[in-house]
Amino acid sequence: MKDRIISVDVLRGLTVLLMTLVNNPGSWSYVYPILDHAKWNGCTLADLVFPFFIFIVGIAVPLAMPVKKDNAENITKVITRSLRIFCLGLFLSYFYSIHFMGLQPGITLLCIRLFFTFCVGYALIGDFNPKTKNILALIIFAILIGLAYSGHENFAKIRLLGVLQRIGIVYFFVSLIYLKTNIKTQIILSASILLGYWALMTLVPVPAVGHPNLEVGTNLASWLDSVLLENHMYIETKTWDPEGLLSTLPVIGNGLIGLLIGQLLMQPMPKIKINKIMAGISLVLILLGLLWSLVFPINKSIWTSSYVLFTAGLALLLLSLIYYIIDVRGYKKWTTFLLTWGVNPMIVFFVSGILPRALTMIKIQDPENISEQINVRDYAYNFWISPLFENQMLSSLTYSVIYILLWSCVLWYFYKNKIIFKV
Question: Which of 37, 268, 373, 421 has the fewest CB atoms inside 10 Å of its own CB, making it the most exposed?
Fold first, then answer.
């Protein structure tokens, strides 16, 4: 940990922990409003997870490359890592589409799917030499994209974009911008992206509607997704994608703000001064985001520019507090639990995406209807946890907490044995 800024790892750990909490309720029908995403405009605790992580991705770029070298080796590393992250996310969309010799859903097919998952996961996370990493990333990317457009019915509706894919895209652009520009240019780019996106969303008429609008399913970002992605969108909406194409543009803004803060953290100045600068900037960003929201509402689904500033400001404010406690005051003993979550985020992202899918494929007899089957995940919640509480929201939250405790044991083992999965 000596070569890392612990406060950044702690913030990352807190973010991944919160992500795991909000993404794994016992029942989606019973979720406390603050732990559920806003239906459209607005911002809940759940809506802070993704922009916080993107902000941290930006911070980590200069920390991982403290000496800027715009050469072929570094560019290749950036491309390879971006592809590996993208492919990890894209493979999650393929899990249910893996079939073998006409096997029906069951344990045998599940084992086959898990075998492919292990192979792909190892190929993308395994510690190989740079050349092997490059080749594997390119091959897997080509196969996954090729299958999506192969015309085969199993892959006709594969979702191409998603959380990890967006992280990979943002990492790619933020890293290139870091290697090829100075801080002044980065500030100008950040402002230009946010202002440009605002102009596009509020001034450009949507072809299918005839006028600009920011409504569900009829805004410019939604229209572009429906035209370019067609069937390869988020299955819950199908007319737009929450991690769509145009709405990924302002996400780069979150990453660039993180990039600027990462470079600030590397400056040879007193830590208390860095802390004061971060706190001041955070308050300015929050205020600007709230003011901008009067004309461009805070909205995660289309990732509005006001949402970028507001969430980046909150992330920076929290980092300022953590940085003050750890780096300025030197109180570090309490950090271990969050560090176990913060140093291994990608394995949590990937396995947390696979595990629920796998559990839904394991079926047992439904005690309430012997002629029906129920998957083991629903069985555990419905018959072990839910009956313990009258308040079903509390029982749903309890399931999430138990899931976190199980993950904590695994991550503690990794941390204790210095096992870190890097993409």
Answer: 268
